[in-house]
Amino acid sequence: MAGTERNLGTKPENPPNEYEVERIQEFTKDDDGVSWYFVKWLGYPSSENTWEPLSNLGGCRKIIRKFHKSEKREKLNRQEFKRKRELSGESIHSLPNKKPKQLTLEQAISPVDLSNQRRNVHRALKRWKAKLNEVCTEKAIILVENDVDLEGPPKGFTYINDYKPGWGIVIPTDPLVGCDCEDCSSESGCCAQKSGAPFAYNKLGRIKVPPGKPVYECNIRCKCGPKCPNRVVQYGRQKDVAIFRTSNGCGWGVKTLTTIKKNEFVMEYVGEVITNEEAERRGQVYDANGRTYLFDLDYNDGDCPFTVDAGRYGNVSHFVNHSCDPNLVVYGVWVNTLDPRLPRIALFASREIKAGEELSFDYQMTGELNTSGSGSKLQPIRCRCGAKNCRDFLF
C-alpha cells in the first residue's frame, strides 16, 4: 500500500492463462445456492482436478453450457428409456440409480479423491503463502489458512506493495517542501501544521485525530530522522496476519495474529489507480458479481477523478471483509505524494483487536473517503457480517 510506482502507467496486458479448462465433469450446489463445477484442467492430470465456483469460470461459458446440455440430453434419454420399459411391462426397479445432482462437495468426491484434493489445495496454498511473503516488502508475515473447503489460491490476483498507476495516470512522488524540524511534534511547526492540519500521532505512533481529518506525514524532503513520530503509515504493516477461509460464506478474510491496540496503524488499502470513467465500467462488472473492490479517492470536496481498484492488483487488504460493526477505520494520508486528489488509504484500529480476531471495515463508510464505486448505481449486496447492528445490505 505504501508509496507508489511513481511513473506513467503502462497499458495493462492480459496475463498468460496458467489454467485452461478442458472439460466439466460434475456439478453441485452448496447450502448457500452457489454453483460448483468439478474441473479437468487442460494439460494437468486428473489428480489435479478442482472444484471451482461459477465466479471463477467467467471465461468458460461455452464449456459450461455444453456440460449442462449434455446432462439434459442424458436425463431425457433416461426418461425415454424408462417410459419404453414401462410400456413393455418390464420392471423399472432394476434400472441403475442416477447419480444425484444436488451433492455436497464431500458427497461428490470419493474419500480417496477428497483426501488427494485437500492435499493438493494445501500444497497450492503453501506455495501461494511463500510467494506472498516473497513479494511483500513489509517485515510482518502473512499466513494462509483454509480448514473450511477446497478453495485454492485466487486466480487473477497479483500482490503489490504500492499503488499501481492505471493507463495514462501519473502519481508524483517528489514533494516540493518538507519540514526543518529536528524533533517533530505538535509544537514544532511540522508538515501537518504547514498544511493547515493538526499533528496526527501521539508519542506511541497512534492516531489521535478523528476520522475525516487529513494526515500529513513527514516526507523525503524533511530533515527529521527515521525515528520521527510523524512517520507511521510509510513504514508499512507491522502486524502479522493470516488470510483465512471464513466459515460464514464470506470467502477469504483476514485475521490478526497479535493484539492490536486502539488507534494503531494496521495496513494500507492498495490497488490500481484508475479514472472515474474506468471505475464506472468496472463497477458494473463487480455489481453483477455481488462484489466491490472500488475505493473512491474523493477527499477533495467531493471531487473524485481517481479510484483505487483492488480487484486484480492489491495487498492483504484485498481480502479484508466488510462489517457493519468494524474494528478498522479509514484515514486519508499524504506522504511523498501531496496531490490532494491522491491520498493513501490507511486503516487504523478503532478499538483493541485481540489476536485471532477477524479484521473488517465498513464498505459503506460515512467519512470523507468511501467505496461507492465512483457514484455508480450499485445493486443491493446481501451483508453477512453477523453484527448486531447489521444493515442487511452492503449498499
From TrEMBL:
Keywords for this protein: Centromere, Chromatin regulator, Chromosome, Metal-binding, Methyltransferase, Nucleus, S-adenosyl-L-methionine, Transferase, Zinc
Reactions catalysed: L-lysyl(9)-[histone H3] + 3 S-adenosyl-L-methionine = N(6),N(6),N(6)-trimethyl-L-lysyl(9)-[histone H3] + 3 S-adenosyl-L-homocysteine + 3 H(+)
Residue stretches making up the Post-SET domain: 379-395
Group of enzyme by EC: transferase
A Gene Ontology term for the protein's cellular component: chromosome, centromeric region
Transferase in keyword set: yes
Binding site for Zn(2+) 3: C184, C218, C224, C228
GO BP, one annotated term: methylation
Protein's cellular compartments: Chromosome, Centromere; Nucleus
All copies of domain Pre-SET, residue ranges: 177-236
Chromo domain residues: 19-79
Ranges of residues in domain SET: 239-364
Binding site for Zn(2+) 1: C179, C181, C184, C190
Assigned EC number: 2.1.1.355
Record-listed Zn(2+) 4 binding positions: C324, C383, C385, C390
SUPFAM superfamilies: Chromo domain-like, SET domain
A GO molecular-function annotation: histone H3K9 trimethyltransferase activity
Record-listed Zn(2+) 2 binding positions: C179, C191, C218, C222
PANTHER family associated with the record: HISTONE-LYSINE N-METHYLTRANSFERASE SUV39H, HISTONE-LYSINE N-METHYLTRANSFERASE-RELATED
Stated family: Belongs to the class V-like SAM-binding methyltransferase superfamily. Histone-lysine methyltransferase family. Suvar3-9 subfamily.
Record protein name field: Histone-lysine N-methyltransferase
Organism: Patiria miniata
